[in-house]
Amino acid sequence: MRKRITLISAACWFLAISFYAEEPAWSAKKPTGKSAQAKMDPKQRAFFENKIRPVLVKKCYSCHSSKSEELGGKLRMDTRDGMRVGGESGPAFVEGRPNESLLIQALRYDDLEMPPDEPLSEAVINDFITWVKMGVPDPRIDHPLIAKKPTEDSTVAKPELWSFQPVRNPAPPAVQNQSWVYDPLDHFVLSRIEAAELNPTHDAAPVRLVRRLYYDLTGLPPTAEQVEAFLDDYQRRQQQAVAHLVDELLASPHFGERWGRHWLDVARYGESNGNDGLGRNPTFPHAWRYRDFVIQALNNDVPYDRFLTEQIAGDLLTAKTPEERDRLLLATGFLAIGSKPAKAMNVNFDMDVVNDQINVISTGVMGLSVACARCHDHKHDPIPTADYYAMAGIFLSTETMWGYAANQPLTAPETPLHVLKSKHHYMPPPDSGAQPKVDPHTLSRKKKPKNVYPPGTALAMGVREKKKPVDCKINIKGESKKLGPSVPRGFLSACKVTQPPKIDDKQSGRLQLAEWLTSADHPQTARVMVNRIWLHLFGQALVRTPDDFGIYGERPTHPQLLDHLATRFRTEGWSIKQLIRSIVLSRTYQLSSFCDDLILDADPENKLLCRHNRRRLDAESLRDSILAASGQLNREPGLGSSIAHVDELVNKAGNLHLPDNHRSIYLCMMRHSEPPELSSFDLPDSTKPVGKRNETTLPTQSLFLINSHFLIEQSQLFAKDILLNPKLNDSQRIHLVYRRALNRVPESSELSRALALIQDVNTALKTEISQDKLRRQTVWATLCQALLNTNEFRYVD
């Protein structure tokens, strides 16, 4: 019977959605033709640089490049055109068809055998297959740019790359319509709009602005009562009402939950190691403590320079109390929570851990792909291999503490954890009903490991100093067994600061690295963070490749505005909350997402910021909004994690997720086994820093919204709550559903359609459900689910 009811509910949803689903009011036009083809997707470029180019350099260039003593098969693989033209056997690939591509056949050792000394791993071959399926995106040119290490006597004062130039403090430009400006940043935006002989669109309606502010600052929708209170205040005080609301939301504990999730994407946060290549996925039962550190730090508005310093070198900072000491140790989880390969099958294991730490610092904090210089001088950015190993020495002198991970050699069982002293961090064992039941068939071992710490010990992942710091030797072609000269620990030579800190022989250099990154004249740190904040408030960044400020990253749409904000960020004490406050109180932020055709045709990508961008809710906000609408959301902070006491090496981790109505940030985030309510909506895989999530539209998302047990259950609970008051008539209940789901009352035509839908569904279900109460709840659940599927619910204007 339940299956039948579900099918009928889905059919009724399909009927209802035709009434309630709304298309976006505008659709930004995308470039077509040759210009679109020439513009490579930044993610495709990143895939090539991280997965393909290092293998080509390491395994192919010795025989198939301009520097080869003899060009094998007359095939050049060091240029894009060389591979497309091919050699004696023809082109190296057929775009989109890996099985027909000579390159893939050779890598598989079908007919040809390349590389000839030994085959590549299956994982690497699969990367090349994916590359061919993608259409072989290749940013290389005929004469690759080789980055050279700047010399002391160089006549070039600064590198040409824009992001290495010092941050300026430009004066706000003059504008014609001075009355339009709310904040100095509006000058920079309006001057560009006026130069293009355009006008910005009108201001957002207050009812849309309040919803935008709640989602952007807390990740939650406002209640109907909160909307009404704001509209009443706005009618009396206009911008004073907006400022008052912004201050309330910034002070809310939900601010840290929303913006903490943004940082966790950059920090590649995960509660398990992920698939290690052997089909095993050891849990990280203590990673959640780093999550809580991030949330608390953002709620407390810890200055960004201090926030970074604590995460890179918290164990080296002075603490006045045991609680503060624990917090600083928790912060260093930033460097320890990365995904690690199987140690048993990887001779480069230690250097791979170092590479992950370099990548999260360089990509996450500086917006540079320093890790690309592991095997060779960076092919386009001014980062020589020597600079990579200068940074590598810092982390090679650091002990990474990720725990025993089920006592498996996979993650180095000799690695300890931080022991926390404060009673605040004690986590009592859960009741049996709150503990995930692990299927023995999913375990990679049968014998349970002994506990190496006394029961009840509060533990945390993190890092600490090694007893004897060392400089790192260059790993020739990235191989840790092929060593070149030693490189003194240090920083990027092309990134100039006035007084770079000196690394003591007795220290790893992490504290000095943090000081260098947060120097007053460091060119990237403030720009990158400002750009990330702008991205989360507007849906697009000023630099639209937020993780790549290098040669092949996009240039800022508003370079002076970026520097203006970076300067303000630093001079106002690196306060994230203050910067967000300034931006959301600007006229630019408060524009409507609706505009006329003139603006849309002149600037379809909205690079001039003539309007706001309509945005789809991310995975966490969508789930939290559904729970809020149904009345089931637990707004209290989640305690620990469902795997806080599960130290297991599992093959399948789906059974480790427990029902939980807390906010999504508190769900267990196992790598390669994401929470099922979120997995269809573009969650990052947490293996590398992600500044901007993918945004895809896939059939699985629609199927989730139609058939998901989670959404059907919440729709039933939503309906049950709506029916609690027997004094309401059907029209009043429809008003209540609309207010809770969409923060507004229905229009007369919507009310009529909803009444007709309820009557039709009730008639259709009479033969299926004889019990009046159950049938009535199912009827109203159909309407609730329909509204939860509308674009109006799933998008923010």
UniProtKB/TrEMBL annotation:
All residue ranges annotated as the Cytochrome C Planctomycete-type domain in the record: 60-118
One Pfam family cited in the UniProt record for this chain: PSCyt2
Coiled coil spans: none
Annotated segments matching region Disordered: 427-457
Domain DUF1549, chain residue ranges per copy: 184-399
Annotated ranges, domain DUF1553: 509-757
Record key words, sorted: Signal
UniProt name for this protein: Planctomycete cytochrome C
Lineage: Bacteria, Pseudomonadati, Planctomycetota, Planctomycetia, Planctomycetales
